[in-house]
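Take a record.
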Amino acid sequence: MRKGKRTIAGIDLGSSKVTSVIAEVTPDEISIRGINSAPTTSIVKGVIRDLNQCAAEIDASFSGAVYASGIHIDQVHLGVTSKDLLSVPLTGEISLGSDESEITPEHIERLLEGINPPQRDGNYMRLQRIIQEFEVNETRGVRNPLGMFGGRLAVRVQDVIGPEWLLSNYRKALERVGLQLKSLVPSVLAAGEAVLTSEERQTGCILLDLGHGTTEIALYRDGAGIFTSTISIGIANFDNDLMQGLGVSLTEAQRVRRSFMKAWLSAAQADADDIIDIKFYGHNEYAKVKKQKVVEIAMPRLEEWALLVKRELNACGLMASVPGGIVLCGGGCHMREVTGFFQHHLGRPVRIGMPRGYSHLFEEFRTPSYASALGIVTFAAHEEYEQRYTEPGPSFLEHVADYFVNLLSRFGGKKDEEEK
């Protein structure tokens, strides 16, 4: 494991904002040197609709992070979300010859390279491969089989894949502002790095990223994500429903949602007869309207939201193996009573996930809205520092030998200077 500092840059492409983070990373600390967010209108539910505008928004966001940090870097890790991203479970197996065969990095590499997702219509690319567990002979749940003995090696993985055109558009947008794509990270897995505790990842939990255009789902167990999915409902859906149902502007609909809307469980509310002020489209004066009108507009979407999340979780077939609770992150966490809403519909304890483990981070960014952006840096740092399936490093005696060699070379250098 390397001990020197390393600079990592991440960009999170959301449906409401583009957030850029530049950090200095060591094995023991992630220090945020610069972070900046810029609004976006060119990305809808994770899909770029205007390449030139998207490039300009990325430039505005990343330039601010560079200015704040004083660090110039051109390679970035990109966090993405889209309803077109798929989570595909796969398995693989190889024979090692005899039970006395020692498992080497070459065996693991051959095993992983032999796993390919089934053919689909169109061209798909892999964003991330999540290794769930290895199996040596009949022993399941092996985290790292390197150096073990056995005659059979198997693995279960989860590939996150996306259409090639979608990922090519992301790359093209970065290239237009002089940035190089280093890796693609599913935003929900990045968010998990920022808000989940090690116990939650190990024991098992459900992560819901309540975004502006989508809701992302991830299941964790044994220290890693084992399933991801995306549904096309986000906070923007409630804004559009209120805009059309009330006959107001988008700005007014957003104000109504923030001021009066809750994650209601039923249309029968004690405060439904309360009078609220609403400015109808084309009017300068506020009108008096019963809150019941807002409840009636929001309830069908709230019920659909809960139904789709529950359906995705049940369809994956993994809920029985994930005993923990639910962690929420994303801008949707600011909706009042959202924790009670999901606890009621999913039947598990719920908490709001706050980013943790970052130094030199302003308090305004320690919110669930920035979880995925900050998590990209953590995710990338683990990928770069963690050498899981390589040969063991130098032994203690080798370190001692290196120390004395360096010591002698320094004394030798001083002696040469004195002779001169």
Summary: The longest strand covers residues 124-136.
